[in-house]
Design brief:
- This protein is mainly α.
- Helix content is 66%, strand content 9%.
- It is built from seven helices and three strands, in the order αααβααββαα.
- A three-stranded antiparallel β-sheet has the order 1-3-2.
- A hairpin with a 7-residue loop joins strand 2 and strand 3.
- Helix 3 packs across helix 6 and helix 4 crosses helix 5.
- The protein starts with a helix and ends with a helix.
- The model has no long low-confidence stretch (mean pLDDT 92).
């Protein structure tokens, strides 16, 4: 069996969907990033870093856990956190349980900055994503994505 034999097992509809998945996700992330940078001076990755920290208990999260959530390598997240630290939006603290690990902590200024950026991000998500999913059952789509990511 060859790779081309495997490809014939996909319907035209399935093949069209899989071909468009990556470009669509790339376009979405680029659009979210451009809107946030232009209006708020934040990258999308900085925004979601602040968002995840705002949802964490005591607005604190171990850096390795945060890296997994924002889907960045430890070194890339380190650079993101350093940029946010310079702006006073996040602080980095050594773990009290494990001297080898560090936590990112969302500061009050960081929470304020996140709240200021939220309307821009929400409008961007609506314009670039939800306005284009008119006839799609969002509940079913969300559940499908959860099954794919293993979070269901």
């Amino acid at each position: 069996m060859t790779d081309s034999d495997d490809a014939t097992r996909l319907s035209a509809e399935e093949f069209a969907l899989i071909r468009e998945l990556r470009p669509a996700m790339t376009a979405l992330m680029r659009a979210f990033d451009e809107d946030l940078r232009r209006s708020q001076g934040l990258s999308h990755i900085e925004y979601i870093t602040l968002m995840f920290l705002s949802e964490a208990p005591e607005r604190t999260m171990r850096l390795s856990d945060l890296a997994e959530l924002v889907q960045q390598s430890a070194s890339a997240l380190g650079r993101t956190v350093r940029r946010l630290e310079v702006e006073g939006l996040v602080s980095r603290e050594q773990s009290t349980q494990d001297a080898r690990s560090f936590h990112a902590v969302l500061t009050d200024a960081g929470l304020t900055r996140l709240r200021e950026a939220e309307p821009v991000h929400f409008a961007s998500v609506r314009r670039h994503l939800f306005d284009r999913l008119e006839d799609v059952d969002l509940t079913k789509l969300a559940k499908a994505f959860q099954r794919i990511s293993g979070t269901a």
